[in-house]
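Chain A, query sequence.
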Amino acid sequence: MIKLVDVEKYYESGVGKTWVLRRISLEIREGEFITIMGPSGAGKSTLMGIIGMLDGAWKGEYFLDDYAVHRLDMRHRVELHKKYIGFVFQQYHLLDNLTVAENLDLPLSYRDIKKSERAGMVADVLDRFQIVAKQSLFPNQLSGGQQQLVAVARAVINQPKLILADEPTGSLHKSQGKMIMDLLKKLNDEGTTIIQVTHNDAWAAYGNRTIQLSDGWLVPDRAERDASKNDAQAGAA
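Chain A, predicted structure.
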């Protein structure tokens, strides 16, 4: 589904280039639940922004299914984002002046969907996420867990193939965090590809593969390190 080849990003500074990502090559299969971990400043959110097509200033190759994203202009990347990707942020990013139902309708309004059909889709998602009673409330009338639940509902209302969750439980209590993680797991079980960033080992365990970043570099997992060590030993023999 996703293939990254030597993806890099840097910022120009007075002393030269400050690298954020270095030579990231990575493949993610459809239906996987991937966890990205690493210390603060490792490049995790930057990588998510590139995969989510929120960041266009990078080098390398990025393939999403049959699309060569690195060859697309920003207009086509935006269209691809709308077609494929739902994004869940740590800070919810709900619009305070819109009700829950209106927040859910917003991503649908960007597409060529009749208002009556959109209303039906919103009603279905409200029911699926068991938030029908909250539909007329504003975000500031909800708890943190409820706001994040609405944010996840908004991310999936377009039925994306890929959900990117950047620290989706970072500001929630443990019970609220478990609720969100259980929901993401359920979506993954139904076929949605999930990529999450987290510092929490318990939430990382929901995924079926963990990717480590350090100072912008991918850290090889133990199997890769052992294979490299064996190759080196065989070459020296």
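The two ends are 39 Å apart (CA to CA). The CA atoms of residues 144 and 183 lie 16 Å apart.
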